[in-house]
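Renewal narrative, Specific Aim 1. Our central claim is that a sequence can be written position by position from structural information alone. The example that follows is taken directly from our test logs and has not been curated for this report. It begins with the structure tokens describing the chain, in the order in which they were read.
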């Protein structure tokens, strides 16, 4: 997923940096909104999973501190081994989606410019 989201965002950056003259910005905007919604859904699911693992680590740590039950340390380590990559993945998703919001603003500006041009051309 990381490769997909970063690759998509980079392709959009290249498109916005050197736009083709005959670009259909309204279609690009709709495609971008679709992709952003997919990534937002992915981000939300990973938020739920990350928070769940963080809660489980906290509960396991509390049980260990209260009961001093040694096998609980193995569970804590296992949960941390899973939690750390989830945090990293969620961090990537969050930052990339935030960057896509900026791209959306730029694309929306291009759509508005095109509409202004068309309205001036029809007058």
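The sequence written for that structure reads:
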């Amino acid at each position: 997923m990381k490769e997909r989201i970063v690759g998509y965002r980079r392709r959009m950056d290249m498109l916005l940096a050197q736009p083709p003259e005959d670009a259909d910005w309204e279609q690009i905007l709709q495609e971008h909104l679709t992709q952003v919604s997919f990534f937002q859904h992915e981000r939300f699911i990973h938020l739920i999973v990350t928070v769940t693992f963080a809660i489980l680590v906290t509960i396991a740590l509390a049980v260990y501190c209260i009961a001093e039950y040694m096998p609980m340390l193995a569970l804590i380590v296992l949960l941390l081994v899973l939690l750390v990559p989830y945090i990293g993945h969620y961090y990537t998703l969050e930052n990339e989606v935030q960057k896509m919001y900026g791209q959306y603003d730029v694309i929306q500006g291009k759509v508005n410019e095109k509409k202004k041009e068309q309205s001036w051309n029809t007058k």
